[in-house]
Amino acid sequence: MPEDEPWEYSLYIPNDLRAVTISRRTLRLILTMHGLIRLVDVAELLATELITNAVRHTKGPAALRVRWSAGVLRIGAWDADPEPPLAPAGLNGNVTDEDGRGLALVRACSDLWCWHPLSRFGNRGKYVWCELSGQPGQPGQPGQPGVTSRAS
Questions:
Q1: Nearest alpha carbon to residue 9 among 50, 65, 48
Q2: pLDDT tens profile 21-30
Q3: Which pTM value belongs to this model?
Q4: Looking at the chain, which runs of residues are DSSP E strands?
Q5: Closest to 99 measured CA to CA, from 114, 88, 111, 115
Q6: Judging by beta carbons within 10 Å of its beta carbon (0-12, 13-18, 19+), is residue 33 exposed, middle or buried?
């Protein structure tokens, strides 16, 4: 499949922390098979943060959604809780803290991020997503000094 053709994958996962690893490895395989290995490291970090939040802070199932269109990779996590995510805190907190930096990392490492509530087919929840440009030399590409997120 040529890199410029759009595609989309969804992975439905149970509320189980092991699903974070499964989601991350599935994302790596998807991007590798589509020739987007240059995005894997940052995309894995973003997906890990989004899926971890979905699994840790809700009680129901979740899903990872990965979409490529017009040179942009969108990574999203759906969960069954309609409550908005907590606003991203800064990354300047205590370096030993293991919690509270997920959406701050998403904001810092993606080109754009957002969330919206969902209500379809009687299901409620929210969808938190972020985007990475797939074009070399664009924001979101690893190794670009001085790049800041549009969402900052």
A1: 65
A2: 999 999 999 9
A3: 0.81
A4: 7-13, 62-69, 72-79, 112-120, 123-133
A5: 88
A6: exposed
